[in-house]
Automatic annotation (TrEMBL):
Protein name: Glutamate decarboxylase
Organism listed in the record: Agromyces rhizosphaerae
Classification of source organism: Bacteria, Bacillati, Actinomycetota, Actinomycetes, Micrococcales
GO molecular function: aromatic-L-amino-acid decarboxylase activity; glutamate decarboxylase activity; pyridoxal phosphate binding
InterPro entries reported for this sequence: Glutamate_decarboxylase, PyrdxlP-dep_de-COase, PyrdxlP-dep_Trfase, PyrdxlP-dep_Trfase_major
Pfam families given in the database record: Pyridoxal_deC
Length: 463
């Protein structure tokens, strides 16, 4: 009778007990490059066992990044694992598919002439945002030089609740970051605030369709109208870049009446994340310009392919082609109708959860998931409780759920919120299980007679 713990490791016919093979039955220094080779089965087992210690991706309600795709998608990943997106001459069909995708997005976002604008895939929405910011800076510099004015001290205006990629952009590309603080009265950037932060050195304004902290949409049309009024008064013509990392793939399908995209002439560029509500595995993002003239020529490199040339622009060079093929697959697979159904289902789950949490008693919703399927809440009368949202976060982690608690940005830094991101794969049944676990954890915490001990390990959640 064969030992069930054994495997045939080669063609010799010899059997070796699994977990007793060299490398699996001994300790090793994981930070030191190994001296000797291992059997492929051994190396696989070591890596496989290590990642078992990660959390369950589908229970990670902190991340916006997709954690579920169907079996056909997984086959495509394997089929295209060796494709390097930068080799457009070697992989011309993959290059053509990339172009199909951003032209589809240009149409989805109501560009005046989708087939003759320009865009590109990126490694994620952050790279797309940086390319949009670079185009704003370069066009501002060119206009200033043409007018005989200084190109020193460019600034970019945005909410204090922006994602950290914008802080990186301003740091890396030497642009002053002008943050408009959010408050209880103004929980996001809006038209009443923006003009106070704009001057002749402003390269643009960033508007967010789906604030990372809460999931709320910033009113892009109001911001554009405020900038229209400012131009009429001062002559300053300030463009908008829309950070649609999440909302760019939600609003067109379930809130088509919201005017936030290229229907507004002042919106020059939009970025989104394919691996968020674009519904594919990481990593792919997109950036598209309203029209070809809004992207300066000196940011574009021409690459020869199919007997002609193809424009290319990116901060990264070599990068995988598989996620781009996955994006095209999802566009073909779902279409507008399918995306509408998936995003509506996610929003239904988010609103079910937010209503259930609001009904528990100790909590007050910051928003309810009516924009992107993301919502946050805070603890009512926080000082009157013997526990905090960090304690609730810890209790839920014991059940496998990652539901982050964190402070709001600077002017609201004394406010702690907790947030749930609903993605494709969080079913209504799973949501009900989560709500039950939140209810049980809350009941336990509410019975505490003394405060929970403070471990002092309350690092802010990183967006």
């Amino acid at each position: 009778m064969t030992d069930q713990r054994t495997d045939r490791d080669d063609d010799s016919g010899l059997m070796e007990p699994r977990f007793l093979r060299p490398g699996e039955s001994t300790l090793s220094d994981h930070d030191v490059f190994p001296e000797h080779e291992e059997l492929p089965q051994t190396a696989y087992q070591i890596v496989h066992d290590e990642i078992m210690l990660d959390g369950n991706a589908r229970l990670n309600l902190a991340t916006f990044v997709g954690t579920w795709m169907n079996d056909e998608s997984k086959k495509l990943v394997v089929d295209a694992a060796d494709k390097n997106m930068v080799d457009k001459d070697e992989y011309p069909r993959t290059a053509a598919i990339e172009e199909h995708c951003w032209k589809m997005l240009a149409g989805l976002w109501n560009a005046p002439d989708p087939k003759h604008t320009i865009g590109t895939s990126t490694i994620g929405s952050s790279e797309g945002a940086m390319l949009g910011g670079l185009a704003l800076k370069r066009r501002w510099q060119q206009a200033r030089r043409a007018a005989g004015k200084s190109t020193e001290q460019p600034n970019l205006v945005m909410s204090s609740a922006v994602q950290v990629c914008w802080e990186k952009f301003c740091n890396y590309f030497e642009v002053e970051m002008r943050l408009v603080p959010i408050s209880e009265e103004h929980p996001c950037l809006d038209g009443s605030q923006v003009a106070d932060y704009v001057d002749e050195h402003t390269i643009g304004v960033v508007a967010i369709m789906g604030v990372t902290y809460t999931g709320a949409y910033e009113p892009v049309q109001e911001i554009a109208e405020a900038l229209d009024a400012l131009q009429a008064e001062t002559g300053l013509d300030v463009p908008i870049h829309v950070d649609g990392a999440s909302g760019g793939m939600v609003a067109p399908f379930i809130q088509p009446d919201i005017v936030w995209d290229f229907r507004l002439e002042r919106v020059h560029s939009i970025n989104t994340s394919g691996h968020k509500y674009g519904l594919v595995y990481p990593g792919v993002g997109w950036v598209v310009w309203r029209s070809r003239d809004l992207l300066p020529d000196d940011l574009i490199f021409e690459v020869s392919y199919l007997g002609g040339s193809m424009p290319t622009l990116a901060l990264n060079f070599s990068r995988p082609g598989a996620p781009i093929l996955l994006q095209y697959f999802m566009f073909l697979r779902l279409g507008r109708e399918g995306y509408r159904a998936v995003q509506q289902d996610s929003q239904d789950v988010a609103k079910y959860l937010s209503a259930g949490i609001a009904a528990l008693g100790p909590f007050e919703l910051w928003n309810d998931g009516s924009d992107i399927p993301v919502f946050a809440w805070r603890l009512k009368d926080a000082d009157s409780h013997n526990w905090t949202l960090y304690d609730l976060q810890d209790r839920l982690r014991m059940k496998g759920w990652l539901v982050p608690a964190y402070p709001m940005p600077d002017d609201l830094a004394d406010v702690t919120v907790q947030r749930i991101v609903v993605r494709n794969g969080l079913t209504m049944d799973l949501a009900d299980e989560l709500l039950d676990d939140i209810r049980t954890a809350t009941e336990y915490l509410e019975q505490l007679q003394t405060p929970m001990p403070d471990t002092g390990n309350r690092a802010a959640f990183h967006h």
